[in-house]
Amino acid sequence: MKSLITGCAGFIGSHLAEKLLREGHEVIGIDCFTDYYPRTIKENNIKNVLGNKKFTFIEEDLVDMLEFPKVDYVFHQAAQAGVRASWGKDFEIYTRNNILATQKLLEYYKDRNLRKFVYASSSSIYGNVTELPIREETPKNPFSPYGVTKLAAENLCNLYYMNYGTPTVSLRYFTVYGPRQRPDMAINKFVKAALNGGVIEEYGDAKQTRDFTYISDAVQANLQAALSNVKGESFNIGGGSRISVIELVKLIKDAVGKEVQIKHIEAQKGDVRDTYADTTKARKLIGYVPEIGIKDGVKKYVDSFKT
Ligand SMILES: NC(=O)c1ccc[n+]([C@@H]2O[C@H](COP(=O)([O-])OP(=O)(O)OC[C@H]3O[C@@H](n4cnc5c(N)ncnc54)[C@H](O)[C@@H]3O)[C@@H](O)[C@H]2O)c1
């Protein structure tokens, strides 16, 4: 089996590459090292796979590529991530890397006999919901420009499926965390601050809640989506652990074993109040069952900083 992973040097893409290689796939990774966070971090993310004979890395910008590799599976992880940075002038980067890049891939692969095109969607497409848990049918009202671009790209996947039969599946990740998590994400910042005696910045009243998904569960969902018979479907991929920021900081404090300093700052534009995934559909159709709860996950993550 040959697989393409876009955004392969990123947090989720690099873990997925390791997993697919372990499963015996030949993997081609594409990444252009966008400057959203430092290149050195991304180079470090793929250092374990670069020496693998079954791994090929292409440093290219998806939007500028005229051709893509011949593969059986595409795992499209590349995007400009992050909710808070998606306002203002930078929205152009989001439309380019999230919408245009997805359209280019779909247009290229639409009649190339792919087994599956798995798209990394996001819980941010739902926005602020009135009912929890969030089901796949819950209305989509993105609350940030980032969410708008992730929803647009998911819609593109659906319409290539409906018009061309491209076997797309969208995985709506709910806050993924674990080793190599992006440096802009809360758990990463909090753990580093807790370990190094820094200050944890809590936004708003810190009672906002998130469903946190451990990286190995998100990666497993990709594999299950690829190998299942489903196409033209979207799935919530959550960790089954919905906790508030206050509770999260307590878990981190316990795992680190130190007191932490907390500073309260104002709520951020684009941040939703709560997320919590109903993963019944993913369980039924692709056999997805998250294995790592938040307490164990935070402990594993904290331990990964010590090795
Ligand atoms: N991490 C999460 O909690 C989370 C939650 C929901 C959805 N997602 C989605 O999952 C995917 C992976 O997220 P992540 O946290 O690993 O982000 P990441 O920023 O670590 O990885 C994305 C990678 O894509 C690359 N990239 C961006 N635009 C590109 C382009 N035009 N050409 C080539 N490479 C390009 C970047 O250089 C980066 O290495 C993204 O699509 C993101 O929107 C992530």
Note the main attributes of this structure.
Rossmann fold, alpha/beta, binds nicotinamide-adenine-dinucleotide, seven-stranded parallel sheet, two-stranded parallel ribbon, 307 residues
Model description:
The chain is an alpha/beta fold and 307 residues long. It has a domain at 2-176 and 214-238 and 277-290: Rossmann fold, CATH 3.40.50.720. Helices cover 38% and strands 19% of the residues. It contains ten helices and 13 strands. It has helices at residues 11-22, 39-45, 47-50, 91-109, 145-164, 186-196, 215-227, 245-256, 280-286, 294-306, and strands spanning 2-6, 26-31, 55-59, 73-76, 116-122, 168-173, 176-177, 199-203, 209-211, 213-214, 233-237, 242-244, 261-265. The strands form four sheets. Strands 3-2-1-4-5-6-11 form a seven-stranded parallel beta sheet, sandwiched between helices. Strands 7-10 form a two-stranded parallel ribbon. A two-stranded parallel ribbon has the order 8-13. Helix 4 (91-109) links the parallel strand 4 (73-76) and strand 5 (116-122). Helix 6 (186-196) packs parallel to helix 8 (245-256) and helix 8 (245-256) packs across helix 10. The model has no long low-confidence stretch (mean pLDDT 97). Residues 7, 9-13, 30-34, 36, 42, 61-63, 77-81, 97, 101, 120, 122, 150, 173, 175-176, 182 line the site of nicotinamide-adenine-dinucleotide (NAD). Nicotinamide-adenine-dinucleotide binds at residues 7, 9-13, 30-34, 36, 42, 61-63, 77-81, 97, 101, 120, 122, 150, 173, 175-176, 182.
